[in-house]
Amino acid sequence: FFFEEKAELLEELKQLSWREQERQADFDKESDALQRQLQQLEDSLKAAKKLAANQTVELQAQNEALALELQANRRSTEVLRHESAALQEQVASKHRDAEALRKQLREVEDASLSTEAALRSDMEKLKLQSAAAGQELQDAIK
């Protein structure tokens, strides 16, 4: 009876050992699968970090290029503002010069009209004097 019980216990122990080995094998398989999954996730994370770092570098380079372009555009805009202000001043100066020339022209026209009127008056006086002198000459001849 003792041997039978011992044999049964031994058989039960073997079955327990076999089940434990199966559980251990299943655990090892699961553990290996989880390790592979973890490794894949770590690789994906590394790749994502690398991609993010590369994109960050690219974005920084683009930002720097855009900042330089913006500075150049601002300088260009400032130069254009100064040039525009200078041109506006030149236009205003030309308008002032043109107005001064118009004023001088009016003065010359007015002076010319005055001179013309004076010359006509003098010519009329000369005509009258000439007519009077001619009349005196005719009267003297008669």
UniProtKB/TrEMBL annotation:
Entry keyword annotation includes Coiled coil: yes
Keywords associated with the record: Coiled coil
Record has Coiled coil as a keyword: yes
Regions annotated as coiled coil: 24-118
Name under which the protein is recorded: Uncharacterized protein
